[in-house]
Each structure stands twice: as structure tokens, then as C-alpha cells.
Amino acid sequence: MRTLTTTEELAAFCTEARHHPYVTVDTEFLRERTYFAKLCLVQLAMPGPDDSTAVLVDPLADGMSLDPLYELFRDESVLKVFHAARQDLEIFFVDVGEVPTPVFDTQVAAMVCGYGEQVGYERLVRSIAKTGLDKSSRFTDWGRRPLSDAQKSYALADVTHLRRIYEHLSAELERTGRARWVREELATLTNPSTYVIAPEDAWKRVKTRTNSSRFLGIVRELARFREQHAQTNDVPRNRVFKDEALVELASTKPRTPQELGRSRLLQREARKGEILEGILAAIAAGVACPQEDLPKLDRSRDKLQVNPALADLLRVLLKAKTESYGVASKLVAPAADLDAMAAGMRDVAALKGWRHEVFGEDALRLCDGQIALTAQGSSVKVIDVTG
């Protein structure tokens, strides 16, 4: 197992990797105590029959620069292969403001190829690479040095087996003509805006039970302060204060330290110093915000008149179509999209791109009364009723 601890070693590997059509990539990181992930290890493998073309890169080694790796990531002639790439891509984007290109995600490809919802790497290793994984090092401290042999073996397996998985799935996508489907799915994953967390939009992730614009205005200001404080101090947002406390504060609207001290859900650290001051300032800003500048939730779907019988038929059709195509049903259309369609909405993802081909076209025909569904043995058949 080769571990690269100098920039020169990394540069030599990346130069060699550019002579290959793809390289597999994985990372190990820590994030329990920080806002941004702390990159502890990068695993890379070129095509090859054994571990000799795979390396571990130690970003914590003295003097190590990942610039050669980022140059490789910019080389569009080399495909970068990940499994469940989102967190890995976010780490690289935060570091250099760029996303590797082009990218292939075996988790996305596996869902398109019928391996189920959010299929895990271990399952693909078993079913495609025909071997098992030692997961005993999964939750170890990747920031400690030296790494144990068990940690190194675990980490290396995440990119060596990935070669076989990629080659198998890639061939299957070409055989079925579904490579375009994966490219469509990866458009969001490789869009840099996916990894930009704007404090002013943080409130949209907070679950509330009210649509009062004034209440939401206070939620917005509290969430904005929390996000800014968490990013600036590199601490998890829940270490500043949790969502439950945020909602409580937006409801009670404390104006003084004494009133804030009566909060039931606020952590002790948030009742003093910079956080206390930030909370009170955020609440004051939300209370004083002009009415026309207050946020409003999009409640358009809440008022939809869903035809429950049509929604049920769409679910049956989705199951039948995805089973026939061998693709995960939730990847094609979540329940919310089916209900929206049953209420007359047409601006849903299930009716666009490759999903329209698999499900959307017949779904629209079903909504318009042009097809019917009938049971035939253990399967469901689509019948054209237009004559």
C-alpha cells in the first residue's frame, strides 16, 4: 500500500493517471466537530488488476499540496469516478471553488441500472466485484497519525473495487442506452451552486408549522446569524443552537438577556457572549423588517385539489413502468410529484428528461384518460383506449 506524503509523489502519480481514461476517487474526513469537513485522506486508483495502481494521499503530511490532484481534476480527458460523490465533491469545492470534471457516480448509475434506492458501496462490491469488505475501520479517527494497516486496507478497498463496479455499470449503461440518463442526473451534482450555502437562504431548511410572514422573518434572521456564525467559527450549526431552539425563539421573541434566559431549548453556550448578542440582534431585525420584505413560503402545493383515485393509479403505473425498466421508482417520481400531477400540475421532474421517456409520457396519457390499466396475472398492463 503506497501512501503519498509529498507533493512531488502526488504530482508523479497524477501525471501517470492522465494516461488513463478514468481514475477512481474517495475520501476520508471528519465533520462531527466542524462546519466544514476536515479532509484526512484521499484514495486514488488507476485502471489495473491489483493494488499496485492505487495510492493513499495524506493531505495532513507536512508540506503536502493537493495542487497536482486539482490539476488532474481539471483534465477533462480523465473521468473521475466516485461512489455517492456529493460529500467528496463538496470538500473539493470548498477547498478550491471548483468541482472535478467530468464525473461519474456509481451510486446514481446503480439506481438507473435497477439496484434500488441509494444503493450502498458494500452491496455493489458483493454483487459486482464478488467479494466482501472489512468495515471495522469505518468509524475510526482518520485524523490520527500514523494510520493503522487496517485503516489503510479499508480505505484502499474503496477505490480498488470501484474500478470493477464502474466498468460493469458503464457497460450496462451503454448496453441499455441509459448513459444519457446518468449524465442528466449528474448535472445537479456537478453544478458548483449545489455546494454554495448562502446564509440568507438557510431558513428554508428549518421546518415550521406556521406560514406567518412575521414569524418566518424572524426565523430567517436567526438562521442567517446561525449560518454565518457556524461558517466563521467552523463549528456545526447545531452547536450554535438547534432548529428546535430556533423555532422556539422565533415564537417567544425575547428582547433581553433575561427573557432569552427563559428559553427551554437553548443550549447553555448560546445564552452568553457573541451568540446571545447575535440572537437578540437577529430577533430585533426580524421584528423590525418591513412587511413587504418578509419571506413567504411557497404553499401552492398545499392548496392542490388532489384526485386521490388518479394519484393511486399513477402509483400503480409508476410501479409497473419502473419494474419493466428495472429502475428505482423513487428516482423517477417521488410521491409528492404524483400527487401534484393528480392535481393538474405539470411542472414536475417526473415529466422531464429521461423520466418522461420512462414514465411521464404514459402518466400524462393516464391523466388525460387516453390509457387504462389492467391486471394480467402478477403484472399490470397499459391499454390504449383512444380507439
Give the helices and strands, then pairings.
Blueprint: E1 2-4, H1 7-17, E2 22-30, E3 38-45, E4 54-57, H2 67-74, E5 79-82, H3 86-96, E6 103-105, H4 106-112, H5 121-129, H6 149-176, H7 179-189, H8 213-233, H9 237-240, H10 243-252, H11 257-260, H12 273-288, H13 308-325, H14 329-332, H15 335-342, H16 353-367, E7 371-376, E8 379-384
Parallel strand pairs: 1-4, 2-5, 5-6
Antiparallel strand pairs: 2-3, 3-4, 7-8
Helix pairs in contact: 1-2, 4-6, 5-6, 8-10, 8-12, 13-15, 13-16
Summarize the structure.
With 387 residues, the chain is of the alpha/beta class. It is built from 16 helices and 8 strands.
Number of continuous helical runs: 16
- pLDDT averaged residue by residue: 94
Total domain modules: 3
Strand line-up of the largest beta sheet: 1-4-3-2-5-6
Largest sheet data = 6 strands, mixed
Number of strands: 8
Explain this structure to me?
It is flat, with a radius of gyration of 25 Å. The strands form 2 sheets. The protein has a 6-stranded mixed beta sheet with strand order 1-4-3-2-5-6, with helices on both faces. Strands 7-8 form a two-stranded antiparallel ribbon. A hairpin with an 8-residue loop joins strand 3 and strand 4 (54-57). The mean pLDDT is 94. With 387 residues, it is an alpha/beta fold. The chain folds into 3 domains: 2-195, Nucleotidyltransferase, domain 5, CATH 3.30.420; 199-293, HRDC domain (DNA polymerase, domain 1, Orthogonal Bundle); 301-384, Orthogonal Bundle (DNA polymerase, domain 1), CATH 1.10.150. 33% of the residues are buried. It is built from 16 helices and 8 strands.
